[in-house]
Specification:
Elements lengths: L5 E4 H31 L7 H25 L1 E4 L14 E6 L5 E7 L10 E3 L3 H6 L7 E6 L2 E11 L1
Parallel strand pairs: 1-2, 4-5
Antiparallel strand pairs: 3-4, 3-7, 6-7
Amino acid sequence: MSEKEILLTAEGLKSLEEELEHLKTVKRHEIAQRIKQAIEFGDISENSEYEDAKNEQAFIEGRIITLSKLLRNAKLIENEDVSTDKVGIGSTVKILDLDYGDQLTYTIVGSAEANPSENRISNESPVGKALLGQSVGSEVEIVVPAGVLRYKILEITK
């Protein structure tokens, strides 16, 4: 079974690589120090500091494995591959909410680097899927749990 290809922008790739490096160098060392200190407190069977440190260690090691796998399967979306004619991964899209009149700007990214609080939405999200392949002037209706969103695409940039 082949693993799923992970689509990343250059910015997303750099961010994940930096996080992985930080976990491997800084966080691993910090946790090793915490575990060493906790062991020095004596009986580890009832030592909550030791338990907390071991749990954090497990979390960090799991995240390292996840990031390594993501990066191993990463496919970089090059800026020159991003079209301004149609929405694709890497596109920044300015849309008009046809019901409320709000203008919104989203960058369409792969799911590994989606961050709605930074207006970076996944190509696999309902809004991301609906916008893919559309061009300036297109109107899209997106069924979401809260109802139907209606958007008009105003601009597509890189």
